[in-house]
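On clarity, I found the account of how folds are encoded harder to follow than it need be. Since the whole study asks how a given chain folds, the encoding of that fold should be made plain. For illustration, here is how one protein appears when written out as sequence plus structure tokens:

:::
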Amino acid sequence: MDPIAPSDFFRIEHLLTEDERQVRDAVARFVDDRVLPIIAESFENDHFPRELIPEMAALGLFGCSIEGYECAGLNAICYGLICQELERGDSGMRSFASVQSSLVMYPIHAMGSDEQKNRWLPAMAKGEAIGCFGLTEPDGGSDPGTMKTTARRDGGDWILNGAKMWITNGCLADVALIWAATDDGVRGFVVERDMPGYTTREIKRKFSLRASVTSELFLENVRVPDANRLPGAEGLGAPLSCLTQARYGISWGVIGAAEACFIEALEYSKVRVLFGSPLSHKQAVQLRLAEMARRITTAQLLAYRLGRMKDAGEMHHSQVSMAKWNNCRMALDVARDARDLLGASGITVECTPIRHMLNLESVITYEGTETIHELIVGRQLTDAVAF
């Protein structure tokens, strides 16, 4: 029998197809060779490594689940593994790809016109156009139903006014998918960077997701042609369906962050000698490492099952909420404990856990807080809304 890998205790490797393993390994090599050598400095300097976008595009990472339009047409497991490996590098790398793929390319593909698909999807797949997703507002947060951004009909155009907050990729984006309230309910609009009245401002002084661009978006009488409205996006359910896609990727991505922290703590425990023997020989340390392995393994099995259900068309959004809730909590707890096991070294950027720990404070919050996902599961169990 093959040895048990610490980061794959239940041999999920054996459940993957050869194609799925090849996709994972290709992204893992990219992360090892191109992301890990620079990401600590990028995080420290509050810099997103934009120079890696063409390489990510060349690997087919953007819109990878879409068929056609120069996209890779991969299955849900492959997309999950891509997110896992990118977040093993840094949550900022996975966040960039998640927004590009799940929050912009997905709705254009699922709800857009043929003209919108042909114009934007190939360019975004090649990394020639960058997108962002404008749903969250300064006073909105977990309650998007209070949306204050408006779109008013004016002849054959729409006039958009409002502001969006905490928008990943905002200042990088060539196109923003803006959700606005109309007289007929919430609608989605493709707003282009050079449209008069549309401006962005980067949010600085963050202590989380520092290797990611987070922005404010401002819309002041922005005139948008009706051709830029997503024809298939009607009601609040449209943007929420996009969040389901992104949350699926997050449920995989955070496993990568947890694995990176766990492996570093495990290796450190073997070489750090304390009271005459390595830390790995101490009962208390073994208990903590075993607990990390248990949590990671549970999250892996949950994500794997979710991916197979997604590919079979059997996935429910409440199942995604459970996975996002469970796996984000798991990853944050593992990162915190790994940081502690590394002692004083654990607070430096040269070590992985503190960076992942700080990032995961955001990941457990965005795309639905832990409490929101608990309530989504609770609603599914009881058929009663308790928000």
Q: What stands out?
A: The mean pLDDT is 96. Residues 103 and 242 are 6 Å apart (CA to CA). The domain at 131-228 is CATH 2.40.110.10 (Butyryl-CoA Dehydrogenase, subunit A; domain 2).
